Each structure stands twice: as structure tokens, then as C-alpha cells.
Amino acid sequence: MEPSTLTALWALMRRDLTLAYRHRSELLNPLLFFVIVVSLFPLGISPEAKTLQTVAPGVVWVAALLANLLSLDLMFRTDFEDGTLERFLLSPHPLPLLVLAKTAAHWIVVALPMIVFAPVLGQLMFLRPDAYWALLATLILGTPVLSLIGGIGMGLTVGLRRGGVLLSLLILPLYVPVLIFGATAVDAAGAGLDVSGHLSFLGALLLLAITLAPLATSAALRVSLS
Amino acid sequence: MWVWFHKFGSPRYFYDFAGRCIPWLGAACALLMAVGLYLGLFVAPPDYQQGESYRIIFIHVPSAWMSMFVYVVMASSGAVVLIWRVKLAEIIASVSAPLGASFTFLALATGSLWGKPMWGTWWVWDARLTSELILLFLYFGFMALEAAIEDKRTAARATAILSLVGVINIPIIHYSVYWWNTLHQGATVTKMDTPSIHLSMLVPLLLMAVAFQLYYATVLLIGTRTELLSRERRTRWVAEVIRNS
Question: Using the beta-carbon criterion (under 8 Å), do A166 and B161 form an inter-chain contact?
């Protein structure tokens, strides 16, 4: 008997998480990248608390965005190479939902550790105390959008041998709204302003991305594997 | 209507049809551009605030309009590619991309040329300039993806998806940049927001806008014809066309 779609999604997520857990050292790389990029800024700009404080929201957000971008390879690459991806395309379950499950697993593996670690980086960058909760809230709402949009780019480039730089060219312009709302919300919260508008907008982006991005990713995967 | 659709989509028919259109479109474009430039550069009065340097809007504004229009054309042909697999739409999207990128670049370049005497700098992180820059990146992404995929038909479908994703994102990007800009900079020196424009300036502006549209149509048709010949080079009708020429 066919397993129900829900069972399939759950199995897929558990498989991806198990695989990630078995390759723990790879799992650490995006997080390390995140930390290293942020720690470059005091070296490049100035160690002065006041200067760092003003750029902190943007720096942490840009670093999170780049770490996410570089980790997109984890989403489909190995599955493409060993042929698992073709099995997904042939499966009786709707591909967009499978993509959504894979994206969720990717988010748990890549973004969640970064979110947990973000307050430490906030310390390093002398982030204003009022801004911490805003940093966490925007990262929780914003990083799934990054993973979802990134999935489209990954789907388009997965079949290409040197897709890395191309992927960033395709995806980075699309990351702009998330970056803007994420970073300005943290900035505004640090200044004691109301950020519910920013958060609503990020939430709206997330809902839009959840509904549309998996469809685009599935179409892209079908093109890449045709 | 469907008969027309299929007839129009057939490479052979389109090749002949476009060949007949090009001289007319090109002539109309040259005429309108000449009249528009004459009215804009010699007849329209200088602006009381900006003097003569405002005249760059007769190039700047039409190219900015075209930069967005061409992306919409690409996305619409992308939808046609994905739904009906029409070869012609693939070619239209592919030929449009460098044209759209050129319009975007022209808008940015003229904008910064105008900005130097007006704002005192070549570049301002103004909302419109910024979203235009991101639009340029989107065009580059489209062209890079197309160049990276060897098989042209696969490339067409992949770029079609990308252009549809882009066209959904462009308004979001535009408004978020707009909001970001007002948050950060408050009242900057943007002066282009004047709601009313004098008729003596509006007429050449509109003439130039139509001339730019015609220019795009002309170059698009020329490019499409060339690309059609190249992609269909193994078919009989291309052999006939070559023999008769």
C-alpha cells in the first residue's frame, strides 16, 4: 500500500536530518562561516564599540544571508549526484510538498544553529540591548524565506557543474527585501522604535514564499533533470 | 484567435512577417526620435530650477520605463514558454534580456550623469536608483543562467522560471527599497517627484517614450529573425530562405 503523503513528508524530513547528523562536521561549516564573517568586520572597520554598534544589525544579517547562500548546496546537491532526486520526481507524492519538507530540514540544520548563536555575535558587535529580541525574531521569520528562495536557485543550477557563483548571482538580488526588513527592524528596535510593521512584513514574505517558492523550485528541478 | 496564435507562433510565418514590419517600425522610430529630440533639446524651455541639465530626462525616463517594460515582456514570454512551449517566445525572451539590460544601464548612467550637477555626487542610494540597480542584477542573472545551460530549450525553460520569480519579486523589492530609503534618509534631494509637468516638456517626453518602444520592437524583431535562422538552421524553410536571398 502507498504510504500517505504526510508519512512520506515526515520520512523525508527524518532522512535529511539523520543524514545531516551523520555528517556533523559538514553541519558545522555554515555556522563557522557565519561567526568568521562577523568577526572580520571589527578587524576591517574598527574595534570601537560605537562604530560597531551602528553597523551591527546589517553585519549580522548580511553574514547570516551569506552563510545561508553558501549552504544551499546541501539542499539538493548530494541527492542530485546519487540519483535520489530523480526518485523524488517520480514519486506519487506532490513534488512541491516534498521540496517544502526538504527546505524545512535544511532550515533546521543550517539556520537554527545560527539563530541560537546570533546573540553571541550580537555581543561581539556591541548590539544595543533592546535589539536582541528583534534580532532573534527577524532571523526566525527571515531565514526560512532565504532557504525557500534559495531552493529555487538551487533547483535551477543543480544540474550545472559550476553553479556556485551563478547561484549567488541569481539569488542575492531576490534576498534584498528580507535583508532590508531584517536589518532595519533590528536597527529600529535598538533605537527603541516599534518594529511590529517590519515583523508583519517579514511574516507576509514568509507566507508568500511558503506558498509560491516550492512550486517554482519543483518546476526548476523538473527542468534541471529533464 | 487560436488559429492566429498558432500561425503567429510558427517560425516560418513570423520570419516573413517580421521582415515586412522592420522597415516600417524602424522608420517610425527614427522619425519620432528626431522630432522628440528636436522638441526636447531646442523647443522646450529650460527648467527654472535645473536649467538645461534637466533635458537628460528625455533619454533617462524612457529608458527607465523600458527597463521595466522589457522585464515584463520577458516574464510574459516566459509564461508562454512554460505553458505552451512556443519556440518563438523562447527566442523573444532571450533576445530581450540584453536589450533590457542595456536600457537599465542607460537609465542608471544618465541618472548619475544628471545627479552629478544636481546632487553633487554620481551616486545616491535613492530608492529608484537602488531598485534600478537591482533590476540590472536580475537581468545579469537571467543572462548568466542562460549562458550556463548548454541546451537552448532547457535554458529557455530555466530562465522562464527565473523571470517569473523575478517579476513577482520586482514590486516587492521596489517597495521595500522605497521604505528602507525613507526610513534611512528622510527627505533627500529627489526632485523628480513633481506631479505636474509642463506640456512643452511632456510632449517630447511621450514622443521619446514611444520612439524607445519602437526601437525595442525593431531591434527585437531583427534579433529574433537572426536567432530563428540560427536555431532552425536544419529545417527546410531556412534552406529555402537562404537559397532565395
Answer: no
Residue B106 in any domain: the answer is: yes
User: Please, where are the H alpha helices in B39-126?
Assistant: 57-84, 87-119
Number of domains in chain B: 1
pLDDT tens-place string over residues B37-59: 999 888 888 877 777 888 888 99
CA separation for the pair A63, A201 (Å, rounded): 21
pTM (2 d.p.): 0.91
How far, in Å, are A150, B38, B92, B95, B173 from residue B77 at the CA level?
24, 35, 7, 11, 22
The answer, for B162 touching chain A at a CB cutoff of 8 Å, is yes
Asked if B176 and A201 come within 8 Å (Cβ–Cβ), the reply is yes
Distances (CA, A) of B204 to B30, B57, B67: 14, 10, 19
Q: Does B152 touch chain A (CB under 8 A)?
A: no
* pLDDT for the residue numbered B47: 75
B59-83 per-position pLDDT tens digit: 999 999 999 999 999 999 999 999 9
pLDDT at residue A64 tops 50: yes
- The pLDDT confidence band at residue B193, using thresholds 50, 70 and 90, is low
B101 touches chain A (CB under 8 A): no
Can you give the residue range of the structural domain that contains B102? 17-44+53-244
Query: Residues of A at the B interface (Cβ-Cβ below 8 Å)?
Result: 149, 152, 156-157, 159-160, 162-163, 166, 169-170, 172-174, 176-177, 180-181, 184, 188, 201, 205, 212, 216, 219-220, 223-224, 226
Whether residue B62 contacts residue B207, with contact meaning beta carbons closer than 8 Å, is answered with: no
Q: What ipTM was assigned to the predicted interfaces of this complex?
A: 0.91
Per DSSP, the residues of B193-218 read T-S---HHHHHHHHHHHHHHHHHHHH
Each residue of B120-164: pLDDT tens digit? 888 888 888 888 999 999 999 999 999 999 999 999 999 999 999
**pLDDT of B183:** 59
pLDDT at B190: 46
* DSSP three-state, residue A131: helix
A166 vs B180: CB contact, 8 Å cut-off?
A: no
- Residue B189 has a pLDDT of 44
How far is it, in rounded angstroms, from Cα A108 to Cα B3? 52
In chain B, what residues touch A170 (CB-CB under 8 Å)? 141, 144-145, 162
Nearest to B113 by CA among B47, B59, B150, B48: B59
Instruction: Sort out which chain B residues have CB atoms less than 8 A from A156's CB and list them.
Output: 145, 158, 161-162
> Does residue B179 belong to the interface with chain A, where contact is any CB pair within 8 Å?
yes
CB A153 within 8 A of CB A103: no
